[in-house]
Structures are given as C-alpha cells and as structure tokens.
Write a sequence for this structure.
C-alpha cells in the first residue's frame, strides 16, 4: 500500500457525488505543499482554449472532467491494476494561464511542468485545447526529444492559421518537432480522418518521418495490429501519449470543438490505451473536451474514463522505473 496521504476518498465511505470534486477523488496537492515532492503522478488541469480556431469551450474541460471523474473507482477491470496503491497520485490543481494572452499562457504552462519534471513527477493532464501539449512537451522534453503515440482525428501538424498565427490547437506537434521536443521518427498518429484543407495537408509530417495511420487502415488491419506497430515505432525509449477526445466518433463524444464522423467507439479507445501497457511512458494528456457542446456530460464521462485508462498504464510505467 502506498502512502495513505495519496489515497482517493473511498466511494463506499462517502458517496461519490458528495464532497469537493478533485480528479478521481484524490487529495489536492499544490506545488507549495510539503507533500508535493512525494507525488509520482500529478494530475493537472489546463483550463485554456486560446488555441482554438473554431468552436471554443475547452477552458471548461478540467472542471467538468473533475466532476465526472468522481465516478471512477480504483481498480482496472481487466489488468486489476490499482494505480493508487502502485504509486502516489494527486490532483495538482490547474496550471496557471492567462485567458487573453496565448504566448504568456504557453510560458506559464511550461514553467509549471518544468517544476513537475524537476520533482520527477509524471504528468497526466486534462485540457484544454490541443495547443496545451506543446508547452508540456517543451518542459518535459527540454533535454532531448521524446516519442509520441497520438490518438486524434487530426494530425495537428499545420503550419499556421489566419495569416501567420503559429500557436493554435492545429499546430502543436509541428512546433514541437521544430523545437526539438518531439522525435518525428518515433511519432505515430492514430485515427486520422476528416475533410482536409488541401491534398498536401500531411506532406510536411510525412517528410519528417511521422507515421500517420488513417482511420481506414485502423479498421482494415484491426486495432491490435496497429497498436503492435505503434509500440515497435516508439520502442523502449521515452514516450508521451496525447489523446484528443475527437478521435472517438461524435456519436459517443459529441462535446468537442472539431468533431469528425467515422471514428472509434469507446470500446476501441479502451482497447488501444490498454495496449500501451509496458511502454516507457513519461506523461499523457486528454484534451478537447468542451462542456458547452456537452450538455449531457457524456463526453466528459468518456474523457474521465480514458484518463483512468491512461493513469493505469502510466502507473505501470512509473512503478517499473521506480523498481529499476
Ligand atoms: Mn488534436
Ligand atoms: Mn482533433
């Protein structure tokens, strides 16, 4: 049993709809807290949608994900992993942002995640729009580029929007490759689909060596086969996981800014994340849940459930590193 200070409030002690809503009912540990240095996996919200090019609202994602995540129990249904007894998990609150200044927000987020890296805390992050992955990668991959398994309907590798804006939720991974934070040859994008701006949309990423697995290939080959390939591309080296909720079909996750039909169902998504077990994972995010487009809360529940799947494979990786 890990530290009692880091256990979620048991759902059979006080009902899960009661009390303050933290991620998965974990204790809130601020960076100023003396317990901060004992955290292994820090769950952080980034309430930021300043990178959104069309339908906004993901700034409200962390609060709704916290609310729905109180329904999460403790033990994975298939692996029987209890991440909360394996490693110390905590809700670190929200990263600081400035909702009317994109560039300042990116600096504030990088600063926050640099502090996590300095304390050897593995981040699991709830967005926010997909631009938030860029300042996270800039912090955790400051010394050397990492690999990435990226679930999304979109590559998010565009160059710029609206006549030169370089930092949007459609550009984070191009900026991360240019900055040397992401190794394009160890980057896999899974579930890509949707109407393009132009037939050349994927050219830049392909030229860098990124592996783009479009949705047709996912369903033709089967997800086990696709995930086996993704695992072999990233290998045993440090790998980040980025999960855009819009990789899931809008029938299951309509509450997002850029829905694309013809996507994964929620079971597919669970199976794919479970196939990440055993990789050298150094962080993950779940982005693009937009509560204003999610009046039922159903999309946030999908997001919170995927966050638990991500937490279990992260806890597995952190535990393996702690034992090594
Ligand atoms: Mn995205
Ligand atoms: Mn997307």
């Amino acid at each position: 049993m890990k530290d009692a200070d880091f256990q979620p409030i048991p759902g059979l002690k006080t009902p899960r709809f009661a009390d303050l809503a933290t991620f998965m009912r974990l204790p809130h540990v601020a960076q100023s807290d003396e317990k901060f240095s004992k955290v292994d996996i820090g769950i952080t919200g980034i309430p930021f949608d300043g990178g959104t090019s069309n339908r906004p609202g993901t700034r409200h994602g962390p609060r709704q994900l916290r609310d729905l995540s109180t329904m999460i129990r403790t033990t994975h249904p298939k692996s029987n992993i209890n991440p909360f007894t394996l490693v110390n998990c905590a809700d670190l609150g929200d990263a600081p942002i400035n909702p009317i200044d994109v560039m300042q927000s990116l600096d504030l987020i990088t600063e926050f995640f640099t502090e996590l890296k300095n304390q050897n805390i593995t981040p699991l992050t709830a967005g926010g729009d997909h631009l938030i992955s860029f300042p996270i990668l800039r912090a955790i991959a400051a010394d050397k580029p990492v690999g990435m398994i990226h679930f999304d309907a979109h590559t998010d590798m565009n160059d710029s929007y609206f006549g030169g804006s370089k930092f949007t939720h459609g550009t984070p991974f191009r900026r991360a490759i240019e900055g040397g934070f992401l190794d394009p040859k160890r980057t896999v994008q899974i579930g890509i689909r949707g109407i393009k701006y132009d037939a050349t949309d994927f050219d830049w990423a392909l030229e860098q060596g990124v592996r783009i697995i479009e949705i047709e290939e996912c369903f033709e080959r089967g997800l086990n086969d696709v995930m086996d390939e993704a695992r072999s591309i990233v290998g045993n080296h440090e790998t980040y996981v980025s999960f855009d909720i819009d990789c899931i079909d809008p029938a299951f996750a309509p509450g997002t800014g850029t829905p694309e039909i013809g996507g994964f169902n929620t079971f597919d998504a669970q199976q794919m994340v479970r196939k990440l077990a055993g990789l050298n994972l150094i962080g993950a995010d779940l982005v693009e849940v937009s509560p204003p487009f999610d009046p039922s809360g159903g999309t946030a529940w999908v997001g919170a459930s995927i966050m638990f799947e991500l937490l279990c494979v992260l806890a597995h990786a952190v535990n393996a590193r702690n034992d090594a």
The chain has ten helices and eight strands. Residues 130, 152, 154, 156, 244, 288 surround manganese (II) ion (ligand 1) (CB under 6 Å).
